[in-house]
Design a protein that fits this description.
- The relative contact order is 0.15.
- The chain contains eleven helices and eight strands.
- It has one domain: TIM Barrel, CATH 3.20.20.
- By secondary structure, the chain is an alpha/beta fold.
- The N and C termini lie close together (9 Å).
- The radius of gyration is 16 Å and the shape is globular.
- The protein binds the ligand O=C([C@H](O)CO)[C@H](O)[C@H](O)COP(=O)(O)O.
- Ligand LJD2ZHX5 binds next to helix 2, helix 7, strand 8 and helix 10.
- The ligand O=C([C@H](O)CO)[C@H](O)[C@H](O)COP(=O)(O)O binds next to helix 2, helix 7, strand 8 and helix 10.
- It catalyses: D-ribulose 5-phosphate + formaldehyde = D-arabino-hex-3-ulose 6-phosphate.
- It comes from Glutamicibacter halophytocola.
- GO terms for molecular function: 3-dehydro-L-gulonate-6-phosphate decarboxylase activity; hexulose-6-phosphate synthase activity; orotidine-5'-phosphate decarboxylase activity.
């Protein structure tokens, strides 16, 4: 299973500094939606240029103009771009078209979708590389939130998937057992007192579980 660090910081400089610390322990570097909104596509170019060997994920959360939005993110250096599962099928298909033309990939983010397993199968049929079973930061803040709903959706859907929603050292083993291709960790890394240590701990937890 791959580890994806989600960088929900607000400046390219802070993102570059975090990425430099954690890159040895992660496979995918994600530019979070707030970062892209704050700094623009240049943040994607800066991270790809600093880490050409890493998979760079632009969390565009595209809802419309799928082909256009995916294409500008790929042109800036992204290898993977996210589209929302609540978007129209034509938006997903347009983004997939842009990805195929550049030999890159679309990840469909199922945040807010009630029947995540059903929509996951639909968007994989449209050509998405994998889906993200995702509970956003606001959903995570609700009382009683845990990862189990996302993990069960992943098990039921039987498609390639990632899990994002407060993945931590306590839960990354469960994400792996559920069969995820990618565990996404944002706050568990960027809010840690020592982000490199936190990322290394996540990596070591996977080695031990393997
Ligand atoms: O996609 C995300 C969220 O919508 C804000 O952009 C996060 O990057 C994702 O949820 C992973 O972060 P954590 O939940 O803090 O692990």
């Amino acid at each position: 299973m791959k580890i994806q660090v989600a960088i929900d910081l607000l400046t390219t400089q802070d993102a570059l500094e975090l990425a430099a610390k954690v890159a040895p322990y992660v496979d995918i570097i994600e530019l979070g939606t707030p970062l892209i909104k704050a700094e623009g596509l240049s943040a994607i170019a800066a991270i790809k240029s600093a880490h050409p060997d890493k998979i760079v994920f632009a969390d565009m959360k595209t809802m419309d103009a799928g082909e256009l939005e995916a294409d500008i993110a790929f042109a800036a250096g992204a290898d993977l771009v996210s589209v929302l599962g609540s978007a129209d099928d034509s938006t997903v298909a347009g983004a997939v078209k842009a990805a195929k033309e550049r030999n890159k990939g679309i990840v469909v983010d199922l945040i807010g979708i009630p029947d995540k397993a059903k929509r996951a199968r639909e968007v994989i049929a449209l050509g998405a590389q994998f889906v993200e079973f995702h509970a956003g930061l606001d959903e995570q803040a609700q009382p009683g939130y845990d990862l189990n709903g996302l993990l069960n959706a992943g098990i039921v859907a039987e498609v390639p998937f990632s899990v994002a929603g407060g993945v931590s050292i306590k839960t990354i083993g469960d994400v792996q057992k559920a069969g995820a291709q990618v565990a996404v960790a944002g706050g568990a890394i960027y809010s840690a007192a020592d982000p490199a240590f936190a990322a290394r701990e996540l990596r070591e937890a996977l080695v031990q579980a393997a």
